[in-house]
């Protein structure tokens, strides 16, 4: 490594979240093809795990089922852990989730994760109702039953061999409370609700009950990470997602994913600019040195056992370069098997 960068030691593994952004002017099939190259490259780079998010009816994000992407990537890679980040329990029958991920775990022993979340995965009410066969939003009790039933089916009905590693996704104290009650490791969406992170993790650790799945509190933090050669280039690459987020602030989930040039020409309101700047302050955007500082500071602040990086930028090459730069300039402790995390 060159002398220009100051390496920062991080003592937790690094993983990745794939959200499969569909570029303006491209086909969803092109994005789907890119997911294979992305998985292969992250496997080569030594990232610990790669998860796939469930989304529906969005022009900016591909509607690719996590279980299908997990199966495809597992066949293309050799060591990286793969799974859902997450499948959304109210959209699926618990026994089907158990059968799908139990089968994957039997085929790829020790490499499959089952991350479970609650949201609808869409901003379109008719799509949400279709996913739930006409039912409305799930209640707290229904969600708890869905998660508990999925775990029970994994053990009692499927049991094909090594079980997938279950995680509960959360962006709130309520989700943290459920993870603590069920004794599950928690994957916290700091990239969505950074204002909730510390309170939710405190709640989780204070109330955690050990289970067959997890003996002690275990925390994964997902953080938006855009790394480029300079802070200015990282800001340019992050521009398209800023446009999508500005639409979400208005309750619109129908904003296409623009090019960096289109994003640079976009006009944000003063309030949008303020909210976006506040959000960015909690994420990891910038040069390798800047990103290394943000990631190490976040790990120290939260006491995370693992960081998961999500990098919603326009081109696959720029996205892969971001993950490469992080691996080059954030020095990590090796895993027990000798691999870098």
TrEMBL record:
Keywords: Monooxygenase, Oxidoreductase. Residues 26-302 form the Luciferase-like domain. The keyword Ribosomal protein does not apply. GO terms for molecular function: monooxygenase activity; oxidoreductase activity, acting on paired donors, with incorporation or reduction of molecular oxygen. It comes from the Bacteria. GO terms for cellular component: cytosol. NCBIfam families: oxido_grp_1. To bacterial alkanal monooxygenase alpha and beta chains. This is FMN-linked alkanal monooxygenase. The lineage of its organism: Bacteria, Bacillati, Actinomycetota, Actinomycetes, Kitasatosporales.
